[in-house]
Amino acid sequence: MAVLRSASARLLALLALTTLPPVLEAALSTHFGLRSLVGLAPQASAPLPFAIFHDLRWISVYHHSWPQFAGELIATVLARGVWATAIVLVAWPSFAGRRPAAGRALLTGITGTAALTVFLLPWAALSVAISATSLSWLFIADVGVVFVLVLVAQRAGLVPDWWQGLPPPATVLWAVVSFLVLTVASVVLSAAPGPSPIVLAAVAGIVNGWLWRRLLSAALAARIRLVRVPVAPLVAVGLLLGIAPAGFLARTAVQAAEQPPPPLAIGPGGRPPQALIFVGGYDSVGDGTPTGGSPQVTDSIPFEMFSYAGLDAGGRPLPYRSQQTQQSLETSAKLLDAQVAEVHARTGKPVALLAESEGTLVVRTYLATRPHPAVVAVVLLSPVTNPSGAAFPPAGDGHGWGLATGAQLRAILTVASWSSGLPISIDEPLIRSLMGSPQRYRDQMFCPVPEVRTVAFVTLSDALTDRPGNPLGVPFVLVVAVHGDAFDRSRVQRELVAFLHGATPRTTGATLYRTVRAAAVAWQAPPLRISLFSSGPGGYETPRCRG
């Protein structure tokens, strides 16, 4: 230890501790075909709460049994505790006096790491659910909770009394700076070509070393207010208990989804030459009328609602309930096939499909699995950008990737279901069908389909659950809105109608979209390699459009 008595030696040791982990992760991600995940690498040596959240997301995806999950958790707590202790000892500022004894520092590091693991584990599990379903509103909630936990627990592993009192303003500042730095680093590494992300990961590690020194100095110099109040544990428990009332928000979302789509305003060219079928999203409802219950006036374009319940004996759409949107995508695609054939035969016109949210997955499944000569145009509205990124086995299975994560999600959704009265489940056929055919849905939403003109109207929030490498292979229009809000916009309707008349919309916002999704990688769960899915093909290569 004598060699570490000099400031230069301690600085070199600090930079080694903060540089090697991101470099190693960037190299391994590139080697194993997970190139779109290099944006996660800087967090491998970030300040402790960020590093723990990074580790827990990998563990939540890549474990196959309960013993493996427990072993990975224990190993992570011990390894991160030792690593954090080493950083504290080499980065200890001179103004703070003598460094703590190694044993005491190690106890502080391991207990702080263990507490952060308990605080963050449910939210790491939720990030896996987001990877499987690509739900942007869940992403916003999950990252928001993690950010609050980071603010109140930033001193964990650094000082013994980290859990007491309000977080000092200085540590809050450095937590915010760290969050921004890691987000920007994700954008830079994701956009870097070839092997350069490995070099950039080393640069990110050096920046992390600087952040560690600043944070440690701020934590040691801070004067703590409300020192007798266990603020960090109270906030962590409060956020977890907040899952219960969040169920009421789910009910509000369902009520919004049950509203019929707005009328489609007619354009200067009059009614388009196609018969239109609107494929609604998750938890939508249909009353069986040709326009889904929306009053159509003289200046609007009629369209028929797709029915998740199928057709009656006369070939008309049956009324359907929100629960029927939870059926498998294969079942819905089969029903859409029948409805397209019926509409084409009845009208004698080619068919255009307008699909929103889950409806875009139904349309994608239909186009990928069945002949579709009658369909000439597809409009994707608020598409589910990149699902099928994770797996968890069905309830009752004792093995499978994401086993413990699935159990955590079932517990979370049980509470949310209790408060909302809604049948929310990760075992519903829709979710199982996403995980059963990842090669059909991952990196495929914006791929062109031969002989079918396609345009995508994508909201900015949808970028949060996409990943770099997902090809934007069709005309792409970015809408500054939240998921599900694209069809209501008059600009979208004008461009949609022009598209149906043969115009090609000008791609807009693609650069902003790519930037946002690259930034979001820093806070997503890593996807499970397709080769590890029970029904997936061998290997996960660079995404490419198939067909």
From TrEMBL:
<feature type="transmembrane region" description="Helical">
    <location>
        <begin position="73"/>
        <end position="93"/>
    </location>
</feature>
<dbReference type="InterPro" id="IPR029058">
    <property type="entry name" value="AB_hydrolase_fold"/>
</dbReference>
<keyword id="KW-0472">Membrane</keyword>
<feature type="transmembrane region" description="Helical">
    <location>
        <begin position="105"/>
        <end position="125"/>
    </location>
</feature>
<feature type="transmembrane region" description="Helical">
    <location>
        <begin position="170"/>
        <end position="192"/>
    </location>
</feature>
<keyword id="KW-0812">Transmembrane</keyword>
<protein>
    <recommendedName>
        <fullName>Alpha/beta hydrolase family protein</fullName>
    </recommendedName>
</protein>
<keyword id="KW-1133">Transmembrane helix</keyword>
<feature type="transmembrane region" description="Helical">
    <location>
        <begin position="137"/>
        <end position="158"/>
    </location>
</feature>
<feature type="transmembrane region" description="Helical">
    <location>
        <begin position="227"/>
        <end position="250"/>
    </location>
</feature>
<feature type="transmembrane region" description="Helical">
    <location>
        <begin position="198"/>
        <end position="215"/>
    </location>
</feature>
